[in-house]
Amino acid sequence: MIDWTDRHCRYFHRLLSRRARLYTEMITTGALLHGDVARHLRFDDAEHPVALQLGGSEPADLAACARLGEQWGYDEINLNCGCPSERVQRGAFGACLMAEPQLVADCVKAMRDALQNPERVPVTVKHRVGIDRVERYDFVRDFVGTVAEAGCTTFIVHARNAWLQGLSPKENREIPPLRYEFVHRLKRDFPSLKVVINGGLTSDAQVLEQLQGADSPQAAADQAGGGPVPLDGAMIGREAYHNPWWLASWDRLYFGEPGSAATREDIEERMVDYMLRMQAEEGLGWYGIARHMLGLRHGLPGARRWRQVWSDHRLKGEDPRQVMALAHQGVERAEHAGA
User: Fold this and answer.
1) Which of 150, 157, 158, 328 has its CA 20 to 30 A from that of 228?
2) What's the structural domain count of the chain?
3) Taking every pair of C-alpha atoms in the chain, what is the biggest distance, in angstroms?
4) Alpha-carbon distance 9 to 238, whole Å?
5) Which residues carry a binding-site annotation for FMN?
6) What is the pTM of this model?
């Protein structure tokens, strides 16, 4: 989610769900140790709970960055061992780290040792179920077992292999088959760990099936595994970004809390207020912030025209309140025309 889940995106998502845990885009250790720390780590207090996701493979560097994350107030430090991009591979981190479980364990231990309170700010790991054509369950089982010995108690598992050669990052999210049964086997083999599933989840029915351990074709396919078991959470990536209104039901459905009474228009107005605040406090234009909410009216009449207005670079110099008014006029015209 590099360049996607920045602080403005997370502020927007927090308006939709009070309880869902938000994650930063992956930030490399080099960017923090040799770049602008404030630009990468600052966030709005409203974003809590929020996790800092790091990319790196040197224990000392990751320890220093984990310490920075704790100092800046993050609620979790996550090590990415799942990204398959060539750029990440050249840095010797991401999914290729799954081939070196002891190194990952050393990284986790160094990060935990660097924190003042590793119980309050846990170190977690996001990873795949395998790399390349290695499709044996024991590969991911042994990876998790080794890393857990270093003190990691939460594993976020993208239920696809990462093919390190021959597939683009986009293809890596679509072509390798989903193996949800491997994630359930991990929870069954490591019941004391928190196991969170990721990959291919686009509806509440799918999420509930995984969280509740309901029978499913994918889980039933693992005859040796003993069937599905309840999992501890689900991570949603691009579907949440492209269809953000989905988040508005999560507090009620997954946390047992009253859902927000806010409408999409309410959320849009609050984002305009945020744009104006960012303009006043930091001199930021609204255009780079608005891109994160373009899916807000996904599936509604006039959504296309609404997106066109909010993404029109010719309007960059306008007050965002005026842009919002133009976008609503476009929706009204589209609805009147039956578009």
Assistant:
1) 150
2) 2
3) 62
4) 12
5) 53, 126, 158, 198-200, 237-238
6) 0.92
